[in-house]
Amino acid sequence: MHRQRRTRIIATLGPASNTFEMIKKLSEAGADVFRLNMSHGEHKDASALYNTVREVEKATGRPIGVLADLQGPKLRVGEFTDGSIDLEVGQTFILDMNDEPGDQSRVQLPHPEIYEAVEPKTELLLNDGKIRLLIEKVQEDKITTTVTVGGELSNRKGVNVPSAILPLAALTEKDKGDLAFALDLGVDWVALSFVQRPEDVQEARDIIAGRASIMAKIEKPSAVHAIDEIIALSDGVMVARGDMGVEMPMEQVPPKQKKIIRHARRAGIPAVVATQMLESMITAPVPTRAEVSDVANAVFDGADAIMLSAESAAGEYPEEAVATMNRVALSIEGEPSYRRMLNRDETMPEATTADAISAAAKQVAKTIEAEAIVCYTGSGSTALRASRERPQAPLLVLTPNIGTARRLALVWGLNCVYSQDAVNFQDMIDKACNICHEYKYAGVDDRIVIMAGMPFGTPGKTNVLRISRVQDYHVKV
Predict the structure, then answer these.
(1) Which end of the chain, N or C, is more open, meaning fewer C-beta atoms within 10 Å of its C-beta?
(2) Looking at the domain assignment, is residue 444 inside a domain?
(3) Residue 353 contacts residue 462 (beta carbons within 8 Å)
């Protein structure tokens, strides 16, 4: 039950990890949350994966989170007569609304929103930025460009418009159908793609209406510029480095990653780092040293969770990829410099009882060398504030709400146990001590720190900080 590792691991499910046996292996190797990529497969496939995760959860006894990742708008060129062309630097190339197959001089771009948003002297990026076009002239149904970086361009390759905010909603009709399906399924988190502005998150929040937590994927420059406003409307953020590395100069991605994580922690919401973390392990049993350093840096940055995509979904070594990520995170968290890095970004408590209790619990646990901090919570808000403090003592969360336990599975340091709420003050102490002893957080005579709220079972009432010593009578069978 007890994870020694504070940083959480998200593993994407797919053809390489769609059986009970493999999902259980991934969970045992260190995966805390499983991602359903709604860009691939059908609803029946996602439903089967979700049900299998719940079977694994029952078998392991550990709450497991499920994140549904929506596809978002996909901007693509049309098709070519011969399937592909080779663009040369300096040539003129036209993008238009004509649905005829393309050739060396032109191709269809069936997205009127792009024509509305772009202007001369701005860039269009094609095929993940491998091809660059400088816009010379914009008409209602035609964009004339000059090729500045050439290469092969084939059917249906993607288009990025880094310098413009497109008049596109983050939720397409497909996304809305996928979202309704995912909410009916019971997923814990919904990842929202193509977030450009705070209003995109608000639209999703209005539809979701509290049935799942919202993870805003930060992959557009405009989203980075509005990061605090987006964080204020989100339950979590994901540093989606794939599109981010296309939409802005690659050398800007690492500092933006650090900024997003820092701002998310300051706000008390989890931050996930994703994309190409162990990419070579799709086909190799060991990662490159650069990939290990990348994972290590995300852990050093204080990310709540790190994510595997194709490595666990379609790779040849899904279990090894999770185990590698687990080992790297454990190793970094054991470094003295890791704690110094966490303490460097000090978070100032807000003027709330929950923040005051959380900050005090961290300090008290450090002073008395407590074995654990136990947090009673119903909605999860108090546990989030406790995690924000990044205490040195392990955090044990007791909640009567299985949905809360699953949702908190991707938050830094939170070890969640589904348990009935305390009925009185002595029961609060007994439950905390019993569970700490049962899960080997603490032994007899060890001290623990307890955070709770009175009256019991009332959300948002964290107002108790208690130091308790585990006694023989607490742990009798």
Answers:
(1) C
(2) yes
(3) yes
42/445 Cα distance (integer angstroms): 54
**d(C-alpha 20, C-alpha 26), whole Å:** 10
Round to whole Å and give the CA distance between 211 and 207: 9
Total domain count, the chain? 3
Strand ordering across the sheet containing 372-376:
414-418, 395-399, 372-376, 447-453, 462-469
Looking at the fold, whether 148 and 192 belong to one and the same domain comes out as no
Q: What is the pLDDT of residue 1?
A: 58
Query: Where in the sequence is the domain holding 310, given as residue range(s)?
Result: 8-73+169-335
**pTM of the prediction?**
0.94
Looking at 5, 24, 217, 390, which residue is catalytic?
Answer: 217
Among 52, 145, 275, 399, the active-site one is 275
Q: What tokens appear for 20 in the block?
A: 């009970």
Cα 26 from Cα 22, distance rounded (Å): 6
Summarised one tens digit per residue, pLDDT across range 33-88 is: 999 999 999 999 999 999 999 999 999 999 999 999 999 999 999 999 999 999 99
Cβ contact 339:306 at 8 Å: no
Q: In whole angstroms, what is the distance from residue 207 CA to residue 385 CA? A: 26
Query: Active-site residue among 76, 142, 447, 469?
Result: 76
**Bigger pLDDT: 7 or 169?**
7
Do you find a cis peptide bond into 110, omega within 30 degrees of 0?
Answer: no
CATH, residue 179: 3.20.20.60
Does pLDDT of 300 surpass 80? yes
Instruction: Identify whether residues 178 and 222 lie together within a single domain.
Output: yes
Report the alpha-carbon distance of residue 428 to residue 374 in Å, rounded: 10
Catalytic (active site) residue 217: yes
Confidence of residue 343 (pLDDT cuts 50, 70, 90): confident
The answer to whether residues 308 and 357 belong to one domain is no
Residues 396 and 467 in one domain: yes
Please tell me whether residues 294 and 177 are part of one structural domain.
yes
What is the phi-psi region of residue 59: left when phi exceeds 0, alpha when psi lies from -120 to 50, beta otherwise? alpha
Three-state DSSP at 341 gives: helix
What is the total residue count of the chain?
Answer: 477
Instruction: Determine, yes or no, domain membership for 342.
Output: no
> What is the band of 164 on the pLDDT scale with cuts at 50, 70, 90?
confident
Contact 32, 410 (CB under 8 A): yes
Q: Give pLDDT tens digits for 345-358.
A: 777 888 888 899 99
| 3-class SS shares of the chain: helix, strand, coil, % to 5 | 40, 25, 35
Question: Is there a contact between 374 and 450 (Cβ–Cβ < 8 Å)?
Answer: yes
CATH number of the domain bearing residue 156: 2.40.33.10
From 6, 35, 241, 388, the catalytic residue: 35
The verdict on whether 327 is a catalytic residue reads: no
